[in-house]
């Protein structure tokens, strides 16, 4: 399984905003309260190095400024939280790029040539291959382990792995004649363990298979993994 962790771009900005908000909040709260001690003076009117205990009290002169800073800090934290949830739930990762082209002189059974590039969790090409499969529609699918919302808030993307390339037919007479290719070694032990127990764990809420069908129309598609699906997008629309 791949577990991308967006640490730059929008998520980097979210973390910076949250960090600034947290620092401002701590600074404002610490400045409002005066420590409960004061230095004792010696017979010459100088600090003796000893202190007299006092009750901690609020510094009223700084209360207004501290209150304003607290409000700003809380607003920044709310913005960071909302942005983190939105990006965590809507962010997509490029997992593959493919193009399916009908093969000439394929006889009674349609065939297609499939150019497929798979990407790793850092968005770098991991493999590039061409497959000849039966059919005039192409299904690409894989495994997804969905994180709990708390981990999405921190910017962690759901786990995914592209595992299947399958040729299918739009003609109902060939529906049962599928031709598939196993990718990336198929289902791994991590996914199978999560899938068998319903995906319930400290990190995950669900584990399931997902994919999409693409026609053999000579057009190129970006295959993107969201938090809960593997979906195609036109070549000119990045994930």
Brief account:
The protein has 239 residues and is of the alpha+beta class. It has four helices and 13 strands. It has two domains: 80 residues; 141 residues, no CATH class.
Largest sheet: 5 strands, antiparallel
Could you list the spans in which at least 5 consecutive residues all have pLDDT below 50? 83-90
Number of domains in the coordinates? 2
Q: Which value, in Å, is the CA radius of gyration?
A: 29 Å
Strand content: 35-45%
Q: Whole-Å distance between the termini?
A: 19 Å
Give the count of helical stretches: 4
Multimeric state: single chain
| Order of helix and strand elements from N to C terminus | HEEEEHEEEEHEEHEEE
Strand order within the widest sheet?
A: 7-6-5-12-13
Structural class determined from secondary elements: alpha+beta
**Based on CA inertia axes, which overall geometry fits?**
elongated
Mean pLDDT: 74
Helix content: 25-40%
Total strand count, please?
A: 13
Question: What do these coordinates show?
Answer:
The chain has 239 residues and is α+β, with helices and mostly antiparallel strands. It folds into two domains: 10-89; 94-234, no CATH class. It is 28% helix and 39% strand. It is built from four helices and 13 strands. The strands form four sheets. The chain has a five-stranded antiparallel β-sheet with strand order 7-6-5-12-13, with no helix packed on it. Strands 10-9-8-11 form a four-stranded antiparallel β-sheet. The protein has a two-stranded antiparallel ribbon with strand order 1-4. Helix 1 packs antiparallel against helix 2 (60-90). The longest helix has 31 residues, at 60-90.
């Amino acid at each position: 399984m791949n577990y991308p962790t967006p640490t730059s771009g929008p998520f980097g900005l979210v973390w910076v905003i949250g960090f600034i908000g947290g620092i401002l909040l701590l600074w404002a709260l610490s400045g409002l309260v005066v420590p409960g001690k004061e230095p004792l003076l010696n017979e010459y009117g100088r600090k003796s190095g000893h202190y007299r205990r006092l009750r901690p009290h609020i510094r009223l002169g700084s209360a207004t400024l501290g209150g304003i800073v607290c409000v700003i800090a809380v607003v920044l934290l709310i913005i960071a939280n909302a942005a983190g949830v939105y990006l965590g739930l809507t962010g997509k990762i490029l997992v593959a790029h493919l193009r399916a082209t009908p093969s000439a002189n394929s006889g009674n059974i349609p065939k297609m040539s499939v150019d497929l590039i798979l990407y790793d969790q850092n968005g770098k090409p991991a493999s590039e291959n061409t497959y000849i499969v039966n059919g005039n529609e192409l299904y690409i699918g894989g495994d997804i382990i969905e994180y709990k919302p708390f981990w999405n808030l921190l910017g962690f993307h759901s786990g995914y792995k592209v595992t299947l390339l399958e040729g299918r037919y739009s003609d109902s007479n060939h529906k049962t004649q599928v031709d598939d290719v196993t990718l990336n070694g198929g289902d791994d032990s991590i996914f199978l363990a999560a899938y068998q127990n319903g995906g319930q764990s400290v990190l995950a809420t669900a584990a399931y298979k997902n994919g999409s069908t693409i026609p053999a129309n000579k057009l190129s598609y970006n295959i993107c993994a969201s938090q809960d699906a593997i979906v195609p997008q036109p070549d000119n629309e990045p994930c």
